[in-house]
Amino acid sequence: MDSFIFDVDGTLWNSTEIVARAWTEYLREEEHMDMDISSERLMGLFGQLLPDIARALFPQLPQAEQERLIDNCCQAEHRALLRQCAPLYPDLEKVLKTLSEKYPLFIVSNCQAGYIEVFLEATGFGKYFKGHLCPGDTGKAKAANIQEIARRFQLKDPVYVGDTMGDFEACRKAGVPFIFAAYGFGEVDEPDDRISCPAELLKFC
After folding, report:
1. Which of 53, 62, 117, 139 is deepest in the core (most CB within 10 A)?
2. How many CA within 13 A on the CB side of residue 14?
3. CA 182, 114, 92, 16: dihedral to nearest 10 degrees?
4. Are the beta carbons of 143 and 173 closer than 8 angstroms?
5. Reading across the β-sheet that carries 193-195, which strands appear in turn?
6. The CATH number of the domain covering residues in 3-13+88-204
7. For residues 35 and 58, is the Cβ–Cβ distance under 8 A?
8. Crossing angle between the packed helical segments 16-29 and 63-83, to the nearest 10 degrees
């Protein structure tokens, strides 16, 4: 391998509690919608493309209204995460610092534009990563963005670290090995490798 590409939610931090609270407060206070979005519900939705999340949460509404609501929810979430950093997985900064001394690190997530920047600002971890992409940047899903990161930075043998079946399937489409973060949100039966905590990535150093 010559580089690591990371997912965010369920791999680097768990923002579901803060995001669930921010979305619920926004929908109740600004849209007068009696909805209670739980962190457990979000764990099952995170990793999907934003229009799919909107469709799952607001199935009774027209697509344009779904997209308006989810966009505004995301702006509320960004503000909340900048006020309060979401819980990071154990030893994460130590792991990223050590890995970054040997490998270039990147982020590819199926999130909205600005979310990765919020993660980097809230954590102060921007110094460890060389680049990042998401559908909000490119209009493309995860597999294509993994390939685009590899092309832009001339990566020959990247590996991807993620926590869901969607991550695994994107890696198969992109032709990139997949390391399963088994501490995250999903289940993957046959990854190329698995870790039970971020520190286990240090075996590659």
Report:
1. 53
2. 15
3. -50
4. yes
5. 131-133, 105-108, 3-6, 158-162, 178-181, 193-195
6. 3.40.50.1000
7. no
8. 120
What gap in Å lies between CA 146 and CA 169, rounded to an integer? 12
CA distance 149 to 158: 10
Q: Give the β-pairing of 131-133 and 158-162.
A: unpaired
pLDDT for 46: 87
Residue percentage of the chain with pLDDT more than 90:
96
Span 185-202, pLDDT tens digits: 999 999 999 999 999 999
The pTM of this model reads: 0.94
